[in-house]
Specification:
198 residues; Rieske Iron-sulfur Protein; 3-stranded antiparallel beta sheet; 20% strand; elongated
């Protein structure tokens, strides 16, 4: 092949330019595919940590928030309800919370970081209904004198105490789940992350 009269510099310039344009085009075509692998802002927000203000929560009251499309309950227990928790141990399926349903820092008799507060995912472990908060003592429809306050699932009759522990003889197989959380300060709980308690 005769290369006489061919401008080699121009040839290399055209080859380089074509390769560069091709590389830019390939990168531009790949961007939408790579972006599709990343979660959307809405998906990120759905799983993002939330903060719950407990400054106005009086003993015996509950505040409800939403995290990852699940109801989060924070209950401020009374001194009486804390004293009553051990009385229920013989009636519970998992009184020591040995099932893996809570972070390590909530693997204790009260299932909490601070005894006064319990943080739970408000979904029954049977079929996912949301139990009602029934803090009153001795409710006749829930067992009379044996009812020391807790949560009752109206869908199929499961009962949980004020630590979220499930009673024996009900459809729910497990305790209510404790989400990852920590106290940012005395009045704020962060749900969705683990950290040092304030």
């Amino acid at each position: 092949m005769n290369n006489e009269g061919v401008n080699q510099d121009r040839r290399w310039f055209l080859i380089g330019s074509t390769a560069a344009v091709g590389a830019v085009g390939a990168a531009a075509a790949a961007v939408p595919f790579v972006k599709a692998w990343n979660p959307s802002a809405k998906a990120k927000a759905a799983g993002a940590p939330i903060k719950i203000d407990i400054s106005k929560l009086s003993p015996g009251e509950r505040v409800i928030a939403e995290w990852r499309s699940k109801p989060i309950w924070v209950v401020r227990r009374t001194e009486q309800s804390l004293a009553d928790l051990p009385k229920l141990n013989d009636s519970l399926r998992d009184p020591k919370s040995e099932m893996d349903q809570q972070p390590v820092y909530a693997q204790n008799p009260n299932r909490s970081i601070k005894d006064e507060y319990v943080v739970l995912i408000g979904l029954c472990t049977h079929l996912g209904c949301s139990p009602t908060y029934r803090p009153e003592l001795g409710a006749e429809d829930l067992g009379g004198d044996s009812w020391l306050g807790g949560f009752f699932c109206p869908c199929h009759g499961s009962k949980f105490d004020l630590a979220g522990r499930v009673f024996q003889g009900v459809p729910a197989p497990y305790n209510l789940e404790v989400p990852p959380h920590f106290y940012e300060d005395e009045n704020t709980i962060v749900i969705g992350l683990e950290g040092e308690a304030a």
